[in-house]
Every structure is written in structure tokens, then in C-alpha cells.
User: Fold Alpha-hydroxy-acid oxidizing protein from Streptomyces orinoci.
Amino acid sequence: MTEHIRTAAPAGPTSASDLVREIYLAGPDGREGQLTTDLTALEDAVRAVLPPAVFGFVAGGSGTGATGRANRDAFDQWRLLPRALHGFTRRDLTLDLLGHRLPAPVLLAPISAQTAVHHEGEIATVRGAADVGLPFVLSSYSSHSLEEVAAAAGPGPRWFQLYWPSDDELAASLVRRAEASGYTALVLTVDNPSVGYRPADLDHGYLPLIRGTGLANYTSDPVFRAALPPNAGPEAVVRQWAQVNGNPSLTWDRLNRLREWTGLPLLVKGVLHPDDALLAVANGADGVIVSNHGGRQLDGAAAALDCLPAVRTAVGNTFPVLMDSGVRTGTDVAKALALGADAVLLGRPYLYGLALDGRPGVRHVLQCLLAELDLTLTQIGCGSVRSLGPELLAPAGPLGGC
Ligand SMILES: Cc1cc2nc3c(=O)[nH]c(=O)nc-3n(C[C@H](O)[C@H](O)[C@H](O)COP(=O)(O)O)c2cc1C
Ligand SMILES: O=C(O)C(=O)c1ccccc1
Assistant:
């Protein structure tokens, strides 16, 4: 299934200053045909190349789109307060997270059905992530099986995201396969008891999974296959998946079942309320991901960035807290870290890089993000991502003591 995939040698700069220098040295001709370095402009570029239904699925949100807009507004409402003449000549972007050292506090968020936007799908994504050394979180709903993605990743770090199916035997099988394939953490998504009300998808009558895209972990699973009728065709597969998909009866106390199935660290994704963060801690989670699913689930839900400080306060300083939803730039990463996140997950921007240019597109997006994060630390006067704090932020508007 993966033999058509190009294995382009990882190319390009290794640091922010390299990236910027290479671009200026290459001059305008060297930029011809290259993706923009403005990561907020990628969505428009993607709109021009994807079929409207696919674009609606990836870029769209739930309901009126209020939560998607709130995610961006929340970042814009904070201003950075730089300090001058700080003397830092080097910046340290590294982070130790759950026993692994990351080159920067950024992961690639789980995104389903990636062959809908590029024929290489998650294979290209995991390779683009590995080029930069950042962990890819593979969705349960991937277009290539978790074993194929692991093989393509090589030593690149990878986590597995679980949508807990209604059949525990299937859930256990997925989790055990992930552990056996070298995924080093498990992310349980809890903000999707059912798929959100998404007008774009409803108007197009389009969901990739219903078309059979994104079910590779199921069609390759022995438990799932055993439950299929003999000689089941694609329609029977989708029907069977629809039966086990979604699990609104899940409760916090069930997290201990996961502990019976795997020794992997467990993060709970999709927490907004500080009391849910506390329940995650109380039920043995190793981390939480503050997220509203990029505004795709509950329309009108609070912006993830707005929820972050209260979650951090609730769980204390040392418990791993990650966030996603609305991160678009290096300065966004700095703001999230200053407000209490240990790391962020990037969602749509890398998917847009994938849609536009496969593995090099993913790599480009990640390099641009890290370049701007690195430059942000220099400009703000901070020697390490670990020392970003609220003293470097101010709400928009006039400041009393500035
Ligand atoms: C097309 C698409 C598919 C997604 N699929 C999943 C998924 O399978 N599992 C999951 O936990 N989150 C999924 N998400 C949510 C992302 O993991 C992440 O929370 C969100 O994209 C972050 O917001 P951002 O896109 O604004 O960066 C998906 C998001 C998009 C855009
Ligand atoms: O699109 C998503 O965000 C996602 O996670 C999902 C969940 C269920 C069905 C299809 C997609």
C-alpha cells in the first residue's frame, strides 16, 4: 500500500536563522513555486486546490463557526511584552515530555482520513514530522494502518489517538497494536461523543469515513474483521464501523480499563473545564490536552486558549498540559506556553501543507512555525521555551504600568 510513496531526503534548514538566511540568499527566483511562509494564508491556497466538499470538511467548523473564530480571537487578545537588551545569544526550544526530549514544544494533532487531501496521506505527514523531529499523533481514523505509518516513520516519534469504540475488545486491540508498533503515548479524545453539527459537511453530504476513507485501522484489525460478515464489501465495512464508532456511555472511571491494556502514558484530549482536568488527574491520566477540536464539535464552546490558565491552575505546575485549537504562528505558540501550556498541537496548518505539497509541504509548515517561535524568543528576550511566563504577556489595550 505504501510502495508509491517517495522517500525524499530530508532537506532544508535546521534552525530559524538557517531558514531565513536560505530564503533571502535564494532570492525571488528561489521562491518560485514554493509555499508561502505566512501560515495564516495557507487556507486560501488550499481552497483553490481541494474539491469543495473536502475543503469544507477540513476547514469547516460546527454550527455558526463561533468557536473557531473565538480560538483565533483569544490569541489576538493577548499582546507580547518584549524585554530589551537581554543578552541571550542562544535559544533553547527543547522540552522533556513524558520521558522523551522533543526538539520543540510542538506536536502534530491527530487528523482523520488524510488521503482525502493528498494521496500519500499520513505516510507523508509522519515523514514530514520526522524530518523536523516532532511527534505525529496518528488518528484512530487514519487512511493508512498504524503499522504502515509506524514503518514509514522510522525512528520518528509518534503517538496514537484513540476514539474509544463501543466494543472494548476492539479498543484493547487498537491500543495493543499501537504499543507494539512503537507509539509512545496514547491520546484519548473525549470531546467527540458524537460528531459535531457541521453545516458544510451536511450541505455536501460528505464525511470521508462514510466513503470508506480513514478506516485502515479497522479493516486491518483482527477483532474488527472477525465481526464482519464473510466477503464483506466496502459498504459492510462502513456499516460495521458506524456500529462501533462513538461511545457516549463512556465515563471517567473507565480510564482504568486502558491501564489494563497498556503501560503507555495516557493523555486526555478535549478538556476545557478545570473540573474535567481534575477528573483526568484523579483517574490516572498522565496529561491533558486543552482543546475544543479546532471548533468542530460544540459550537459556542469556549476558546481553548481562554480555558488554559484555569486548567493549569487546577492541575498544578508539574502536570503535563498541552493545548490546541487556533495555533497558527510561532507567536501563538509562545502565547500558549506563557499561559501555562507545556506544548501545543498544530492542526489544520500542517494538513494544508500536506494538501499543497505532501511531505515537503508538512516539513515547510513545521519549519516556518519553529523559525518564528525561535525568532519570537529572541525578540521577546527569553532564553528557553520553558521560561516563557505570563509576565511576557498583556491584554490588548492601554497598559497601566507599561
Ligand atoms: C479535518 C480534521 C480532522 C480531525 N480529526 C481528528 C481526529 O480524528 N481525532 C482527534 O482527536 N481530533 C481530530 N481533529 C481535531 C485536531 O486534533 C485538533 O484538535 C484541531 O485541529 C486543532 O485545531 P486547529 O485545526 O485550529 O489547529 C481533526 C481536525 C480536523 C481539522
Ligand atoms: O473530523 C473530525 O474532527 C473527527 O474527528 C471526526 C470524528 C468522527 C467522524 C468523522 C470525523
Q: What stands out?
A: The domain at 18-393 is CATH 3.20.20.70 (TIM Barrel).
